[in-house]
Amino acid sequence: MIPRRVRITSALDSNWQEVLEDVYLKAIPVKYISSVDIKLKDNRTYSIDVSSKLKTDWNNNSEEASKNLEQIIEEIHEAHGIKLVEYLLDFDMIKSEISFTSSRLGNENKSDNN
């Protein structure tokens, strides 16, 4: 099994960092991944700019992007061996969507109570 870790691209308090370190990676939508850094067994690093590839090569198709990203990682692992895969998340996007969803839920609860 390839070791995997989540990192954040913006400043973040320690509570969020602790929460995100324990996130199961299959549960993270690819649209929140800004890039992936792959540390090879020979100490070289390979980076994939996921946000750019999502917009260009993968036509904003999250399902296709997710499959392609895993395929790339597996091919690199077979060819070179991997020490660690780090997923760098766009936390600003996550926060804005959480805020938007929370606001919508608050409005729905208000309308249910009226």
Question: Helical element count?
Answer: 4
Number of domains: 1
Physical arrangement of strands within the biggest beta sheet:
1-4-2-3
Give the N-to-C terminal Cα separation: 52 Å
Unreliable sequence segments: none
**Which sheet architecture does the biggest sheet show?**
4 strands, mixed
Overall 3D shape: globular
Strand content: 15-25%
Mean pLDDT: 79
The counted number of beta strands is 4
Q: Helix content range of the residues, please? A: 40-55%
Kindly name the structural category: alpha+beta
Radius of gyration: 17 Å
List keywords for this structure.
4 helices; 114 residues; alpha+beta
Fold and architecture overview:
There is one protein chain. With 114 residues, the protein is of the alpha+beta class. The chain has one domain. The chain is built from four helices and four strands. Strands 1-4-2-3 form a four-stranded mixed sheet. The longest helix has 23 residues, at 91-113. The radius of gyration is 17 Å and the shape is globular.
